[in-house]
Amino acid sequence: MMGSTFAIIGAALAATLAGMGSSYGVQAAGKAAAGVTAEKPELFSKLFVLQALPATQGMYGLVAAIVIVMRAGLFDGTINTLTKEAGLALMFAAIPIAVVGLFSGIYQGKTAAAAVLMTAKQPDAQTKGMQMTALVELYAIFALVATLLIVFMAPMEHMAAAV
């Protein structure tokens, strides 16, 4: 396998797993919000914000995937010239945001669903619910920073282009 293949696998894992976590989280919060909105439609805008919060892990995974592909040089015509070691480094760099993005998206969705129910009972408590939900977000941000640090610290070696 060429190094660029490993880099592409890493980018795909970052975007896919973090996106899966976000989609689950948004769905969990959305189910709770739909139930509350059926009874109290005036709370829709407050509940929508809570539902949207778990979407960020998917965005972080996408950012990581783009940075990995760019760092691998896959946009500048050097495809298939990355060394195996450099490609593996980029693949492993994707692990923090891929794994943490998956789980934090799920757990942030569960926290957001609880915040939706809290807001249903006490509409003025929505800000507290957002704070509780955003605390889970912090770990996704840490994971993204870890991924980006590894990506930019990894030595990028390219093989000599075949003539």
Domain unit count: 1
Helix content: over 70%
Q: What is the CATH superfamily label? A: lithium bound rotor ring of v- atpase
| CATH architect. name | Up-down Bundle
SSE order in H/E notation? HHHHHH
**SS-based structural class?**
mainly alpha
* Individual helix count: 6
The major sheet is characterized as: none
Q: Could you tell me the strand content as a percent range?
A: under 5%
At the first level of CATH, what is the class? Mainly Alpha
State the CATH topology: Four Helix Bundle (Hemerythrin (Met), subunit A)
Query: How many strands in all?
Result: 0
Task: Determine Rg (CA atoms, Å).
Answer: 19 Å
Q: Kindly, what is the distance between the CA atoms of the first and last residues, rounded to a whole number of angstroms?
A: 20 Å
Mean of residue pLDDT?
Answer: 93
- Shape descriptor: elongated
Low-confidence stretches: none
Structure, described:
The chain is an all-alpha fold and 163 residues long. Helix content is 78%, strand content 0%. Helix 3 packs parallel to helix 6 (126-153). The two termini are 20 Å apart.
Structure summarized in a few sentences:
With 163 residues, the chain is mainly α. It contains 6 helices and no strands.
